[in-house]
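User: Just a sanity check before I run the rest of the batch. Below are the structure tokens for the first item. I only need the designed sequence back.
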């Protein structure tokens, strides 16, 4: 392994401050690619009694679902509304359809294939991002996605949330970490892009345990990662827990420091899709930062500059210790 500067074209790892999804897509497709969210009307196995009831204790899908993504509309209508919105606002011409709310592989493969192909048939759509659970994929579904991946960018995003079974039990996840590892193993080698989603700030975990997740994740065959802070939102079980026994949620400064520490431990090859969450004011209970998204992004960058650090700094240092013959320039 060699650490090189961006000007050096002789090979190796190029140091960048953050390996961000938008930059990745632009480089891959030659233009900016915008996500278009859709709600296909799915539920989850920990909501309907298959593995549990009530869903994850923090989950209120209205806290992150845009108004144009409503299951009362067909997939085509949702996509066309979304494309019209981002085209007008950003001048976008290429789109990634994001099946976001609930578990988007939780249906027979025939139904899934019909929905996915319907989405891919829309003009300008270059692929799909499919949010799901690791206990809701199987050989048949992954084979179907492999076929779609021959002609489209197919990204499956597994909701991991935490590597710790004590946390997964606390949040009523309905599966353990080993289930995630099995799904990962099934998905690798099919030309399907693989991502994961984690949440930092569960009261079941120490700060060091949260940071250790970066080390574990860096050793897995993951290409993409979403990270955000735990948010307590209305109409959730977590709201009830918080109201009767308030637990600590991150201050803004605490989260920025933790996030940068986490990113230093994370492999620089993992593409970051999200660094924080912003629930609507009318739903958010805690933590309330009241800071615009652009300022949060700028503050993350500025803190990294101040600390003269970058994604993977500690990870790379550890790799060099393991392989002393590697050179650093």
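Assistant: Here's the designed sequence for the first item:
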């Amino acid at each position: 392994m060699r650490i090189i500067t961006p000007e050096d074209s002789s090979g190796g790892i190029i140091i960048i401050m953050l390996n961000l999804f938008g930059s990745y897509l632009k480089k891959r497709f030659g233009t900016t690619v915008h996500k278009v969210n859709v709600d296909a009307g799915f539920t989850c196995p920990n909501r309907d009694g298959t593995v549990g009831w009530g869903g994850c204790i923090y989950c209120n899908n209205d806290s992150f679902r845009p108004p144009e993504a409503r299951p009362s509309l067909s997939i085509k209508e949702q996509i066309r509304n979304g494309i019209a919105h981002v085209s007008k606002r950003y001048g976008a011409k290429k789109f990634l359809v994001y099946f976001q709310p609930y578990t988007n592989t939780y249906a027979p493969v025939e139904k899934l294939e019909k929905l996915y192909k319907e989405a891919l048939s829309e003009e300008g759509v270059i692929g799909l991002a499919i949010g799901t659970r690791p206990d809701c994929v199987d050989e048949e579904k992954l084979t179907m996605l492999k076929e779609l991946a021959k002609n489209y960018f197919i990204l499956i995003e597994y909701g991991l949330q935490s590597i710790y079974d004590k946390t997964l039990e606390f949040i009523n996840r309905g599966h353990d970490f080993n289930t995630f590892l099995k799904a990962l193993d099934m998905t690798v080698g099919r030309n399907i892009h693989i991502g994961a989603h984690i949440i930092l700030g569960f009261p079941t975990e120490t700060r060091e345990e949260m940071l250790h997740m970066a080390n574990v994740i860096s050793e897995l065959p993951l290409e993409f990662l979403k990270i955000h802070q735990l948010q307590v939102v209305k109409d959730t079980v977590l709201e009830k827990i918080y109201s009767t026994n308030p637990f600590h949620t991150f201050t803004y400064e605490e989260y920025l420091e933790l996030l940068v520490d986490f990113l230093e431990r994370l492999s620089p090859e993992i593409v970051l899709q999200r660094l924080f969450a912003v629930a609507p004011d009318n739903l958010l209970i805690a933590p309330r930062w009241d800071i615009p998204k652009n300022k949060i992004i700028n503050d993350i960058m500025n803190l990294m500059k101040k600390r003269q650090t970058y994604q993977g700094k500690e990870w790379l240092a550890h790799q060099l210790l393991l392989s002393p013959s590697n050179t650093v320039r």
